[in-house]
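Recap from last week: sequence in, structure out.
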Amino acid sequence: MGLTYQTMEWLGTGLRLLDQRALPANLRYLEATTIDVLVDAINTLAVRGAPALGAIGAYGVVIAMDQGAQEGWDSERLEKEIDRVRDARPTAVNLAWGVDRVRPLMAQGRDAVLDEAHAVVREDEVANRAMGVRGADWLLARLGDRKLRLLTHCNTGTLATTGWGTALGVIRELAARDRIEVVYVDETRPLLQGARLTAWELFQDGIAHLVQSDGAATSTIMRGLVDAALIGADRVVANGDTANKIGSVGVALACADAGIPFLVVAPESSVDLDTAHGDDIQIEMRNGDEILNFAGQRTAPLESEGFNPAFDVTPARLVTAFVCESAVLEVSNGQTPGMKWGRES
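Predicted structure tokens:
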């Protein structure tokens, strides 16, 4: 199950990014050597996924330093441009985390910042593999050592990370053990990250899957066709509430009713202990035109306006377990991130 594509690569003067807007039809890349290009790539979802954005944030500081040196920015302008990267997507905590991790090193020079950005990538790759093993072990221990029928929402694979994946990393680990019967892939409206990206990754790996509409997910679960659901997270707060792609909370509600596990798989960099409850998470609102149009064609009356939250919040009571690189926390049994790291309010 060798990967033949990379989400990002540092070229020495900037980032080479796999342009996820073009998938699955075209495998193309773009180069981000300026802050304008990088921020546009983040905002238009050419690059996306919480762990990937953590690395993007770290490398973005290097790109800002390089551009500032070339164009003669003063310190105020440099900090403003770095903030543009940090704040490009407010719900995903990893983007700000990546910037904040390397920013204190700027006084030591560009090389120190770049070395730390490379460290973010290395650590993410190790964390991905660890989460895959922990999540697979947990599921097989509770559901039996057998082939599983799983459901996933949005994209949580290599395309959302620096390599391997979070929730999709667990699925890949199970596939490597020959413990996958089928994966139900929610299409993930309005930008189809499930149909375009997750299905493409599963096809590349030869993992059996079925793409379904988001509206079918609840029925699929409640008909007994799914053994467990796995999602990623853009932010996990101290009490275990989780922000993820819009539609995730509906999957969690169906799993709770059906009595099957609902797992959140995310690195510790996605944990925000400074936020106590999910009600305090800022939800990114995207352009309503993403809802009102499809493939360039208007699908609603011209007079209609769109309501387009990018994320929703799943309450901790609906999360069976949170899988990170160092542990599996059984949230439904009271094990929350805040308790593990001693910061719960």
